[in-house]
Amino acid sequence: MRSRQGNAAIVVFLPMILGLESRASIVQDKCDPRPRRPSGTSSTLNKQKSSMEKYIVENVEKNIPNTRLTLLDSIMLKDKAQKLEELFHYRYCLSRNTNNVKFNGRYPFRPLLGATEFFSALFSFGNLVSNLCSYTHFVAPLRSQSVLFGLVKTHMYINILTWAFSTLFHINDTAVTRNLNYFCGFLNICFLLYSGIARHVLEFAADVHVSLFMRPLLLVFLTMYLAHVCYMSLVRFDFVFHKYLCGTLFAMAIASWLHISYMHFPKPHSLYLMVFAGGTLASALIEVTDAPPAFYLVDAHALFHLATMVFTPFYYMFVREDLILNKSISYYLIVSKIQGNSNLAKLNRLAIRSNILTWVFSTIYHYHVCRITRDLDYFFAFLTILMNLYIFLLRLLYVYRQKEAVEVMHRRLRALVAVFYVFHVYSMYFLDFNFRRHKNISSALIGVSILIWFHLARTFKRLPHSRYLLVFATGVCISGMIEMCDIPPLYYLLDSHAVYHFITMFLHPFYYLFIRYDLEYFADTQKARTQGSGTNTRCTALERPGMHKEP
After folding, report:
1. Helix-strand-coil split of the chain, %, nearest 5
2. Report field, pTM of the whole predicted structure over 0.85
3. Structural domain of residue 502, as residue ranges?
4. Residue 124: what are its φ and ψ, rounded to 5°?
5. Residues 464, 538: one domain?
6. Are residues 448 and 467 in the same domain?
7. Axis crossing angle, helix 496-530 with helix 210-230, rounded to the nearest 10
8. Do the record's keywords include Transmembrane (predicted)?
9. pLDDT digits (tens, 9 = 90+) for 102-161
10. Rounded distance, CA 245 to CA 249, Å?
C-alpha cells in the first residue's frame, strides 16, 4: 500500500514539470502567490506607485552594465534586472519610510544573504525540518503496516518536497520555483484532505470494504490534481481561481480533522489534533490579514510559515497515539482485486479501466470545452454505458442458460456490441449524427441496464450482496431523473449535471461491492455445477468469507 501511494505521489509531478516552460512567458507578469490589499487611500498609493516605477526603471537601466551577479545569484538563476528591481524597490520605500507599496505584486523586502524574502525562506526550511524530525521521532519507530501509517509516511514525503520548493521560491522568484511552489502546495492540501477523509473511512468501514472507498477516492483526487495542473500550465494561469480552490480544499481538510478530534474526545491524544487544526487555521487567518513586512523583513506570509512550523509536531503526536491506542482496530487495506479467469471477471476488469478513462476525460472536458475533449468524453461515456449493459446482460444469461450455451451467445453478442459501438462513433464523427439522438440512445441503454439490475437484485434477493445492486440501481434512477430535469446552474455554479456527477460518485462503491461478491458467488455456482452439486449452490456462496458481513 505504501509503495503505491509513494508512486502516486511521484507520478503527479510529471505534468507539473512538463508545464514549467509553457508557463514561463505567462508568469513573468504581476502574478504573486500572496496578493495583498494595499493600505491607505488609493490615490496616494497610485501616485507613489507610478513614481516608484519610474524611479526603478531609470535606475535599473543605469546600473545594469555595472552590476555583477554573485555565485548564489547564478545558482538561483537570478538575472541582473530582477536583482536591481528588488534592490531599488527596497531603497525607494526605505527613503520614503513606507512598506506598503508593491512592485510586480510584491512588498519591499530587505535583501539578506541573497534571498528575496529571507524569513519566509528560513521558516519554510524550518517547516521542512519540523516535518522530518517529528515523523522520525514520533511515528517512524512504530514501523506499522497499517493504512494510516502509509498515509502519514506519504504525506511526510510530500511535505518535505513542498517546503523545499517553498524555500527555493522565497529565495528567488522565478518561473521554475514559482511553479514548483504552487503545484506542490496544491498537492499538499489535496493530500491533507484525502488523508482526513481516509481517516474517517478507516474509522467506520469494515476492513474488507476499505479499498472500495480508498482507491476510487485516490483516483478522484489524482484526476482533480492533474486536471488543475494541466489547466493552469497549458490553458490559463488563473491565480485567483487557484487561490480560492486551495482555500476551499484547505478549509475542508481542517474541518475533517477537527471532526476526527471531536470523535475521539475526551481521549488525551485528541487534544493534539485539536491544537494542530486550530493552530493551522489561525495561521491561515494571519495569512489573510496580509500585513506588510515589519522592518522590511517579516510579513504575514512569514508569520504563517512560522506558525505552521510550530504546530506541525502536534499532528505527528496525534498520529503516534492514534496508531497505538487503536491498534486493536484492523486498518489493513485488503486489495479487492477482481480475480478469476471467467468471461465475467475479464469483462469487469476491462470495464473498470473504461470507467477510469471515462471520468478522467469527463473531468478534463468540464475544465476546458473543446472538440477533442468533448468527443473523448462522449465516446468513452457511451463505451462505458454499452459495456455495463453487455456485462449484466451476459450475467443474466448465466442465470437462465447453461455455461456452454452462454459461451456461444457471448461471442455473437460481443461482435454485435463492437459493431454497434463502431457504427455509432463513426456516424457521430463523420455523418454529423446530432447530439439529441446520441443522448436518447444513451438514455435508452441506461434504462435497459437499470431494468436488468432490478431484475438481478430480485433474482438474488436471498443473497446479501443483492442489496448493493439495489442501492446502486435506485441511485442511478434518481440521478438520471435529476439530469433529465436540466435545472439551470444555481448561483451560476451548480446545475443538474453537476448534481448527477455528485450522486454517481457515491454510488460507485456499491457497484463494485456487488461485482466483487457476485463474482465469488458465480465462481461457486460454476464449481458446484461442475461437481454435480448445484442444489447446494447458494449455501456455499453464503458461507464464503466476507459474504455475510455488513458493509
Report:
1. 75, 0, 25
2. no
3. 460-551
4. -65, -45
5. yes
6. no
7. 140
8. yes
9. 666 677 777 777 777 888 889 999 999 999 999 998 888 887 767 778 888 899 999 999
10. 6
